Amino acid sequence: MEATVEKHLKNLQWLSQEKNATKDDVRGIYDNWAAEYDGSMPDICQCQNWKQIVRPLDVAVSKAFPDKGKDEIKIIDVAAGTGLTGVELNKLGYTSIDALDISQEMLNEANKKDVYKRFICTHLGDQHTSEIQSGEYDALTCVNALGNKHILPTALEEMCRIVSKGKKHIFVVGVTSA
Ligand SMILES: C[S@@+](CC[C@H](N)C(=O)[O-])C[C@H]1O[C@@H](n2cnc3c(N)ncnc32)[C@H](O)[C@@H]1O
């Protein structure tokens, strides 16, 4: 196994085993990984086809908002990382995408992709995210970030809050990497 891949895989394994790992540990791991993420993630993660992952969102959005253009659909990419999900959404015609992530270094990499409008550097958990209003977004993606001390089930209520439009919630969630 290549040394870079091994190093980052070890960090993820440590995170899954360390009971007392904190959000600062998560942030540190990704701040460290950011510059090497795009080159090494496909060798680490089982869920690496971002193009395929965003397709269900495209289908759901066109059914839920038949009268809205894709450029009018506001999407929040939770745990956006370096922006691999945003790139695929943008290829489908979505231009109003914001990125949320706990790691500023990951968001700096995402910024280079030139597909996000706003960057929100915060931890998403069970607390109200003050930067985001209720129902501010039409759809939400969260890819490779559920579980393993990342986005926990207790954050689901907050995720619903930010995309609530009456009874319509559009979520696309990919499997976690660890
Ligand atoms: C494996 S990466 C996935 C990045 C991107 N979604 C992808 O598929 O390539 C996980 C990301 O989740 C972020 N993250 C982990 N826990 C978080 C939390 N509670 N709130 C916000 N971001 C979090 C990390 O900083 C990292 O960028």
From TrEMBL:
Molecular-function annotations in GO: methyltransferase activity
Pfam families, A to Z: Methyltransf_25 (PF13649)
Nuclease recorded as keyword: no
Keyword terms of this UniProt record: Methyltransferase, Transferase
Gene3D superfamilies referenced in this protein's UniProt entry, alphabetically: Vaccinia Virus protein VP39 (3.40.50.150)
Domain of life, source organism: Eukaryota
Methyltransferase as UniProt keyword: yes
Domain Methyltransferase: 75-166
InterPro entries linked to this entry: Methyltransf_25 (IPR041698), SAM-dependent_MTases_sf (IPR029063)
Coiled-coil stretches noted in the UniProt entry, renumbered to this chain: none
GO biological process: methylation
Protein name (record): Methyltransferase domain
Gene it is expressed from: WBSCR27_17
